[in-house]
């Protein structure tokens, strides 16, 4: 498989990954989270990541077999010699965009988790402050509504 073909495969898969990451960002930005949608996005992302990894492994093997150094310098030299330097740069740009979107999604998830934890802590603190009398009823507390009526 040629370097240009491998880079094309990676670029296409990264484009699809960026699209999924943007969908994930939008799904996380709404008030009500659609868990099923996020699960499907996660499964689709995993499939694409595996596809990208296979193409990347093959590209590295080809690069090494042709005598180019490992790493970015060797990859850039191999792409230049194969007349597909612009493809290599496009793959790098797409991978950087995917990485930024992935970081954003992670930050959004972390923010939601912290918010949810604060809400749970608040609920637990309110529940612990509820006092019961000998009849098993709650007493009216200052600033609280007595709902035992």
TrEMBL record:
<dbReference type="Pfam" id="PF05130">
    <property type="entry name" value="FlgN"/>
</dbReference>
<dbReference type="InterPro" id="IPR007809">
    <property type="entry name" value="FlgN-like"/>
</dbReference>
<keyword id="KW-0966">Cell projection</keyword>
<comment type="function">
    <text>Required for the efficient initiation of filament assembly.</text>
</comment>
<keyword id="KW-0175">Coiled coil</keyword>
<comment type="similarity">
    <text>Belongs to the FlgN family.</text>
</comment>
<dbReference type="InterPro" id="IPR036679">
    <property type="entry name" value="FlgN-like_sf"/>
</dbReference>
<keyword id="KW-1005">Bacterial flagellum biogenesis</keyword>
<protein>
    <submittedName>
        <fullName>Flagellar biosynthesis protein FlgN</fullName>
    </submittedName>
</protein>
<keyword id="KW-0282">Flagellum</keyword>
<feature type="coiled-coil region">
    <location>
        <begin position="38"/>
        <end position="65"/>
    </location>
</feature>
<dbReference type="GO" id="GO:0044780">
    <property type="term" value="P:bacterial-type flagellum assembly"/>
</dbReference>
<keyword id="KW-0969">Cilium</keyword>
């Amino acid at each position: 498989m040629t370097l240009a073909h491998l880079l094309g495969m990676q670029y296409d898969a990264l484009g699809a990954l960026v699209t999924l990451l943007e969908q994930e960002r939008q799904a996380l930005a709404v008030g009500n989270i659609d868990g099923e949608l996020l699960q499907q996005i996660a499964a689709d992302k995993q499939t694409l990541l595996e596809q990208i990894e296979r193409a990347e492994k093959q590209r590295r093997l080809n690069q090494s077999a042709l005598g180019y150094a490992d790493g970015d310098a060797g990859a850039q030299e191999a792409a230049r010699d194969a007349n597909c330097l612009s493809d290599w740069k496009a793959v790098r740009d797409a991978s950087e965009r995917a990485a930024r979107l992935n970081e954003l999604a992670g930050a959004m998830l972390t923010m939601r988790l912290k918010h949810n934890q604060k809400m749970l802590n608040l609920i637990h603190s309110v529940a612990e402050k509820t006092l019961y009398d000998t009849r098993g009823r709650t007493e009216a507390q200052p600033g609280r509504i007595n709902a035992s009526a």
